[in-house]
Each structure stands twice: as C-alpha cells, then as structure tokens.
Design brief:
By secondary structure, this protein is an alpha/beta fold. The chain has helices at residues 5-12, 39-49, 72-88, 100-107, 137-144, 171-182, 204-213, 228-236, 281-284, 289-301, 333-341, 379-394, 399-414, 417-429; strands at 14-16, 24-27, 31-35, 58-62, 91-93, 114-117, 131-134, 149-152, 155-162, 190-195, 221-223, 256-261, 268-270, 278-280, 358-363, 366-371. The protein starts with a helix and ends in a 20-residue tail after the last helix.
Length: 449
C-alpha cells in the first residue's frame, strides 16, 4: 500500500508512535514561526526551557499583528522578541515585511518539511507541499528546543479536483465549496490533501489561498503536491534549490474522497454567521450595502438579539439578558440563585464557589447541574486533558508541582469543588518551579451570576 503526501512527510519525521489513525505520534519539526500576538508567551516559555540556541533548521519571529503603537505594551513586546531572536538564533521579521504565513511560504517554506506556528493559518505552507500546522505557543517553544510535536495520527481526506476554473471564479470559491460540503467541523482530526488533474491549473498563490482557509474546516492541515508549478514559483522567489517533487503514491489509500469539478463552480460567498454558510453570488445579487447593514446591525446593536455576553444591570434577569451558555433554556436568575442557595451551608468557614464549571439546565421541569468532568459535560475533552496532565506529572519540575497536577487530575475526575480549591491552593503555593503552567479550562468571566 502506498502513502499519501502527508503520510510520506509524517513517516520521514516520525520520532515515536505508530502511523495508525487515532494513535499518538511524535514528529520532528524542521521550522517554526511565531507572530507578535502569540510570540511573547512562546519565547518566555522557550527561555524557561534553558536551551541556548534553537535546534530547528529555521525559526522565524514575525511582527505583523500588533503593529498599532498606541501605548508601550506592543513596543515592549516587539523589543523583547527582537532581543530573544538575537540571543537564540531566530530570524526576526520587522513590521511591514508582511503577514507571517504568507511571507514564510514565499521566503522560507520547503516542500516535504514540517512547520508548526503559533498562528492558526500556518497551514498556508501546505500550498507548496509542506506539512504546516497551527499550534500553541508552548508546542512551538518545545519544537524550538528540539522536542517532538505530538498529535493524534489524522485521517486522510483526498479532494480530487478536475476541470478548470471559469472566468470570475477563484481559488476562494474552491475552498468555499469544500466548506459547504464538509462544514466547519468536518475537518477535525483530518488532513485535507488535494490532487487530480485540476491541481495543475492552480498557481501556488491559489493553492495557498485554499490551504490557508482550510483552517476554517477545523482540519489538522491541508496540503498540495509539489510539482513543476511549485518549482516555477520557487524559482521566481530565487529559491529553486529548495524545491523537491512530492506527490501521493498511485495506490495511496484515503479515509474519505471528495470530487470537485472546477468547471462547474460559480462565484460564492460565506454568509453570516458561519464560514460554511455558503451561497452562490447569484442568490445574493442585487443586495445593497443598506440591505447588508439591515441584516448585520441588529446583531451588533439590538439588545434583544444575540444579547450582550454578560449583563450586570440591576433590576433585570441577568441570565435571560446575557449570552451565556452556563444555563439552559428557560432557567431564570431567581431559579438559579434558589438552586445554589439551597446547597450552601452558612456555617461553612471555607465555602466553595457553587455553580463553578457546570451548566444548570431543566430536565422534566426540574433543575439539574451538569458538571464539567471526565464522566460528565465535555467529558471527551476533559479525558484528553487528564491524559496530558498524567504525562505532565511524570516530568513535573518539583514535588509541589506534581502534587498540584495530581490534585487537578482528581478534580477533573470527580468535579468536587473542594478538590478544585485544594488544587488552586497547591498551585498558588508552588513558588519553586521554574516552569509554570496555567489551567485554562475554567469558567470565569462568562457567568453573569
């Protein structure tokens, strides 16, 4: 059995694990990128690792997001990032050079290489045949330090392109058609790979447009073959020596195959309020700017439509007037307060925060609290959190940190708020660990009560 493009790159960079769908694989990372909205934290984490020079083939820090200098904060971040680059051997892209994923495609990307970046549109690099994945800042920091990047082995989806785009139809319409077919969640746990005769009609910028917006599919990444068109593009960039041919084997097996005839596509647009709400331009023809405003402005300004996230106005039902997911349909503020008041012990000297990390819903006319636990609400995601926390405990910086991690695991398994308080105190008291961590899966500002 042959390999897909993505499988070939994964196989060449496999450090640990088996290439079976769903199993964990550790990959060697050749290149990294950051931008200034996420780079500051990534480089703080990298410096905490204690590695003097980056161990990747190439790492680049782009200043392209927070370029508005209305205060000292952005300027401080930029100077810090520049100093880190000089100290640790990282390329520094000054403000004005361009957007990270586009510049990286043009100036640094190489077919067959791996790239992770702390920018969700890092998969743009797939337009020249890279395995380019958007990742968290800590993942990028670990990769710069020579560590592996761990993911679950994705499924492989083949998009067969045939025909040729008609006048006024663009590469954006191709990815919109893919979104229409797969939806914004249809790419989760999958790599989208493009092939077929239609690929030969697309330039690298067109391919990059498609892989860039592949992020909206929720996909791990998207990738095109590296062919003569790729070679011509890289020659124009003065980097012909970086080119290599890369394509899927004829007998490669895919988990899913989608066929798209480019000749049959028409201009399309993504409509409110989701990238997969795709409509042909012909259906939108004649809509004026005023009509668009009539559709959009109520969402922005009408307090009765898609209400404000958190309302704290006296005299109003704060649940009904807030855009909160912590309470189910029909639950009122008075009912929620009465529900939690009944649980409180007024003699308790160390009361817990009742209602934290849960959803209060009505079932059969009765209020039921759905807690965020491994066996409850968001269970599948929390099980993954526990999985990684178990690994983290084995490499904890100090015994105190290990105790805090184990207490957090216990909380996620039980949902006991006293255990959560115990974890919080342990985490706060750990002042010796050089590598810190934060627990982001906690309800905080979104609950109006």
């Amino acid at each position: 059995m042959g390999y897909t493009i993505a499988q070939k790159i994964i196989k060449a960079h496999l450090l640990s694990g088996e290439m079976t769908v769903g199993s964990e694989v550790g990959l060697k990372i050749d290149q990294t990128l950051t931008q200034d909205a996420t780079g500051t934290m990534a480089y703080l984490e990298f410096e905490a690792i204690g590695v003097p020079r980056v161990k990747t083939e190439k790492s680049v820090a782009y200043i392209d997001h927070n370029t508005l200098q209305t205060g000292f904060e952005n300027a401080d971040d930029h100077r810090f990032i520049q100093s880190v680059c000089k100290k640790h051997g990282i390329y520094f892209s000054r403000p004005g050079n361009g957007i990270c994923h586009q510049v990286h495609l043009e100036r640094f990307g190489k077919p067959g290489k791996t790239l992770i970046g702390s920018d969700s549109h890092t998969p743009t690099g797939g337009g020249i045949g890279m395995l380019a994945i958007g990742a968290g800042g800590l993942d990028v920091a670990v990769a710069m330090g020579g560590g592996a990047y761990y993911i679950s082995m994705p499924k492989m989806v083949r998009i067969n392109l045939s025909g040729k785009l008609q006048p006024w139809v663009s590469a954006k319409d191709i990815i919109l058609e893919v979104l229409r077919i797969m939806s914004v969640k249809g790419g989760v746990g999958k790599i989208i790979e493009y092939g077929g005769e239609g690929v030969k009609t697309l330039t690298v910028p067109e391919r990059a447009t498609i892989t860039n917006m592949g992020a909206e599919l929720g996909a791990t990444t998207s990738v095109f073959p590296s062919d003569e068109i790729t070679k011509s593009f890289m020659k124009a960039q003065g980097r012909e020596e970086d080119w290599m041919e890369l394509s899927a084997d004829e007998d490669a097996v895919y988990d899913e195959v989608i066929n798209i005839d480019l000749s049959a596509l028409a201009p399309m647009a993504a409509c409110p309020h989701s990238p997969d709400n795709i409509k042909p331009i012909s259906e939108l023809a004649g809509q004026t700017v005023d009509q668009l405003c009539d559709e959009v402005f109520p969402v922005i300004f009408d307090p009765t439509l898609m209400k404000m996230r958190v309302n704290q106005k006296d005299g109003e039902d704060l649940i009904k007037t807030s855009a909160s997911n912590y309470y189910g349909d029909g639950v009122t503020q008075a009912e929620a307060e009465a529900f939690y008041d009944a649980q409180k012990d007024t003699t308790d000297q160390e009361p817990v925060m009742y209602g934290l990390n849960s959803r209060l819903v009505k079932k059969g006319g009765k209020l039921v609290e759905q807690r965020w636990t491994a066996g409850g609400l968001y269970g599948s995601a929390i099980k993954k959190i526990i999985y990684w926390l178990d690994k983290a405990a084995t490499v904890a910086d100090t015994p105190q940190q290990k105790a805090a991690i184990n207490e957090l695991i216990k909380y996620y398994k039980t949902g006991d708020l006293r255990t959560f308080d115990s974890y919080s105190i342990l985490w706060l008291k750990d002042t010796e660990s050089l590598v810190d961590f934060t627990n982001g899966f906690i309800e905080s500002y979104g609950d109006p009560l």
